[in-house]
Write a structure and sequence with these properties.
Helix content: 25-40%
InterPro entries: HAD-like_sf, HAD_sf
Radius of gyration: 22 Å
Order of helices and strands: EEHEHEEHHHEHEHEEEHEHEEHE
Number of strands: 14
Structural class: alpha/beta
CATH topology of the largest domain: Rossmann fold
CATH class of the largest domain: Alpha Beta
CATH architecture of the largest domain: 3-Layer(aba) Sandwich
Length: about 350
Amino acid sequence: MASPASPPSTTPPSAKRPHSAISAPAAPGTTKATKPRVALLYLNTLLASHAAVTHTIRALLLTTTTTTTTNGTTNEPTTTPPTDTQILTAFATSPSLPAILTTLRPGSISHPPSNQTAQPQPQPQDRQATPDEHARLAEAYVRIYAAQGLPLLELAPGARELLAAMARDGVRVVVVVARGGDEEHAHAPDEDGGDDGQDGAAAVAVGLLERFGVAGLVGGVMVVSAAAAALPVDGGAVEKGEGGGAFKRVWDGMVEPWVKGGRVEELEVVVVSRAVYDLGAAKEIGARGCWVRGFGVEQRLGMGAGVEPDLVVEGLEELGAKMFAADHGELEVVELMDGDDD
């Protein structure tokens, strides 16, 4: 069912009007906003990827040893695999795979052998990795994720129901694949030998959606690079953008016209992700950002980037329940208050 028609605008000509009606919150003290007509859902939010991510990181780092030095004597190398919490925390706080691997690299997480006092020890490997080292680790991560991580992925709880409800209600869905963070699996080498992996990113995303039986509920796939290169893919259309503002440029030039289909209208748009840093894209295009925070890591991670979500839900089930409530007209806004520590 289509969204209710918006009332005539009362915005003064000199005032900035948001691109999206959903980005104009209700009056203070209320918790309602109009339901979106377009949803940009980050792929990582539709997937339950904890097992895949933690397995891949351990396979990558487990066999790499660290050494400790005490009183000039080098001890036997010790292997210290990161815990689930350490791995998921690293992915929650950064969209950059090099930064994640720097946090988790051998030497960053270490413990002295059991016969020594647990005190900080000099770590020869505690240094900035070189670009070549980052590249080798990233390539290895992609290979391991493609071979061993992808089979461990599952659809996140509530994802199928949310996508089906959106399809029934006429909400257009575009899945966003981020280059970096826990979406690096989308950049496995192309089957056709492509050298940049971006076409492969879209292909892997579509393959996952097909594998879980939800591809027919999604209108398109948009691949966005953490390195500021963007690639939208819909019906074979491909365009790259370089430099800052790539997300907005791709939205304005490709995705928004495709969604509108030639119609002149304001769109109610929501960007949904479990990583707060992704929601900066919502501000770029005048949309509302929804943070799905119930993924088992520290709730405040990522807030340091200065990105404040407009909506906060614990999971996709909650988002679907609020978006498609009996009144069919409003999406509840859950405010993130300063004192919210849960």
